[in-house]
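Subject: Sanity check before I submit

Could someone independently write out the structure tokens for this chain? I want to compare against mine line by line before I put it in a report. The sequence has 454 residues.
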Amino acid sequence: MSEADVLLKKIAEYDVRAVTLRPETNGWALLSRTSRPLLDALEATGTLVIIEFLMDINAKGMEELLDRHPGLFVLARNVWWINQRVMLPLLCHYRNLHVAFDTFQIHYGIEWLVGQGCENQFIFASNAPRMSIGAHRCYVDYADVSPVIKEKISAGNLVRLLGGQKPPRSIINGDEDPIMAAARHGQPLSPLVLDFHAHILDEGLHGAGLNHVILNGGPEGVQRMARRLGVDGIGLMSWNRPVGVHADDGNRCTQAALNVLPDSCWGLGTFDPVRDTDKMTRAKMQKLFADDRFLGLKPYPEYGPHYDDPAHEVWWQFGQENGLYALLHPNRTDLSEIEMLCSRYPNMIFVAAHCGGSYKVAETAINLACRYTNFYAELTLTTVPLGVIEYLVSGCGADRVLYGSDLPMRDPRPQLGWGVYSRLGVQQKEKVLGLNANALLRHVRGGRLQRNRS
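---
Independent answer below. Compare away.
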């Protein structure tokens, strides 16, 4: 590596406004004394330093870096929603730290950070072409903050850090459709929108154990966000019951949420395949599904047994008898357990979650959709790969792909924008966003929950 003074001359010669440091990747120690001249020089010139969080620096290292160099402008990338517990305090304490939200898609994240006075530290970043630019755009356009702050987050903060550098001109999208136009202006979408994959917390709870910080994840926060986006109905399951492995408590949480949310929302039930006998499980199912707002089953890998294990057989027998559907977080990448269920229980509908997470997963889902008419692919995942929605629709058919957000674990705005700004035609978008879910629900429990937008 060049000495600091030589490097700075080249930075000035080529008008470099930012540098990326990859110490762990490239085999050098960022916090070593030997790196001090480089960091001092970057601090003195106000050059923006971009660094991959956790890949090249951990939370303790970031704190030490910012303490040593209070004038160094640092932009952390690759920060995931799961890192909130360490990143949020750092942002509040160190005003020279900035965060890109390509993967930092935290529920009510912009609103919370603005409330803490961090509006100058949030940077628009999309990780294009790997990720969808439109997904990240919706995070800003639907933010419940002033236009001035939106401008800072979308461009102003980065322009300032780059010493005033801007694009030479604005680019107008000549292919904008009405759905995209509404989203760009932060208006509720007019087509039917049904979120097929969402969680719920007890009102007033902003976390779900371990390192899961989840802001405003109760019924009030979820409903407020739904109104802002134009989401008409939500399929809910408690976060506690699948991930926390407290099935009975989670079912009570979901039922309590349904009591205060609009009747266009519906619930999914979770039961314990390890601690409960088949007889106990069936009795609990009969009691829960006596409430006709519950339409689906939601097992989860945290309980242990895979879905084709005999421990789950009572689930599928009950679902077959009562015309339910199941939303499944896959245990296996080849979806073989879901394939078995589709074959053995033709009267049930099986929805595989997170099929949009990668092209590899999408390919497996397409193969399954081509063989089983009772299989559907649901989209949501933080990775929001560019073009994968179009790929799924092309392979599975426009009628077999469902929008879901996984809120409030992650914010629903990027997940919605992923679909809104896809290259699908308007009619295909409308199917994915809500019409497919509405058609599916016609086949569940005698079509007790149909929501057609007039």
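---
OP: Matches mine. For the report I'm noting this point. The chain has a mean pLDDT of 94.
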